Structure formats: C-alpha cells, structure tokens
Amino acid sequence: MLLVALLCAAPVVASYLAYYVFKPAGGKTNYGALIDPQRPIPETLLVTDEAGHPMRLASLRGRWLMIAVDRSACDEACATKLYFMRQVRVTQAGERERLVTVWLRTDSNAVPDVIKRAYPDTRMLAADPAALAAWLPGESGTQDTDHIYLVDPNGNLMMRFPKNPNPSKIKGDVTKLLKWSSIG
Fold it and tell me: SUPFAM superfamilies, per this entry (predicted)?
C-alpha cells in the first residue's frame, strides 16, 4: 500500500522539484535585448532632416523605426550597421513599408556621397548627442553608437541589438514583430 502511495505521489513531487528547485533555462525567443521599461521618444528631441529643417523625432511615430547612431563621417562600423538595417528591411518583403531605417547623426557635417547613394531610403537626421545618450540605453562597456535600436509605432524604444550583431537574428526578431503586430 505504501508503494502505491509513493507511485501516485511521485509525479506531484517531480513537478514541484522541476518548477521550484530545478529552474529550466530558456523561454527566450528574441535576439535583441528588450528595453524595460519602454522609453517613449522625448517630445523635446529635435532633429534636423536632410534638407536642414528642424523636426521632432516623435513625428515619425506610426511606423516601426530601426535606428542607428553615429557621426556623419560614417566609418566602417557605421556603414556595416546601415547595410544590416537596409538588408533587414528589404527581407521583410510586403511588410517592408512598415519599417523605416533612421540614421541619427551626432554632428551636422555633410554625409559622404557614397553613403547617400548606397542608402537612399534611410532617413539621415542630425541630432544632439547628449539628448540621444540620455534617451538611448547602452550595455555596460558600450556606447549608443555601438547598437541598432528598434522603436515601435507608438514611439516607444523597445529593443536594442548588441554590438556587432548577427543580421539574420535581427531579421528574425523584426519578422516576428511585424507578423504579430497589427500596428504600424
């Protein structure tokens, strides 16, 4: 009788141990780091568009924004981020119009012509580096210029991709977001 009671109690004891003692790893399906709490685009964050007109970055709400931050000179790391962002956008097929690539430049110098020709669909906006640093979080040991950020259509900064990212994993995250989100 004792043996039958032990056999009946074994699944309950095993489930208790599995849930409370041996915590399973996993359950994470996203590559980028989720920003918690989300940070809305500051209403006071002014940028200068390609024509030199000031505008609020918050005016771009309504579509998904993939943002890179760097200097106008655009070194190799900057060009790589812009390339990855363009390629991720292109691979979204019919959903690509919901995604806007934005390059926030931390100075107002001229953009090299080779960059303008290579990335004509990227919004190239100049912004105050101090305001960007206050809004965009970085990982320890990195700067805001090392990451690619994702802003949802409601204007909330919601995801940060790591330094030297894997573009196919970024594509996976963006594809899931566009598939399951009806906004933007």
Answer: Thioredoxin-like (SSF52833)
Contact 161, 137 (CB under 8 A): no
Asked whether residue 21 carries a pLDDT value surpassing 90, the answer given is: no
Domain holding 135, by residue range, is 30-180
Q: How many domains does the chain have?
A: 1
Helices (H), 40-137: 76-90, 113-118, 129-135
**Residue 74: inside a domain, yes or no?**
yes
pLDDT in tens, 70-83: 999 999 999 999 99
Residue 50 domain-assigned? yes
pTM equals 0.84
Handedness of CA 77, 134, 88, 99 (dihedral sign): negative
Q: Give percent of the chain above pLDDT 90.
A: 75
Rg of the chain over Cα atoms, rounded to whole angstroms, equals 22
Q: Is 64 helix (H, G, I), strand (E, B) or coil?
A: strand
- Would the pLDDT of 182 be above 90? no
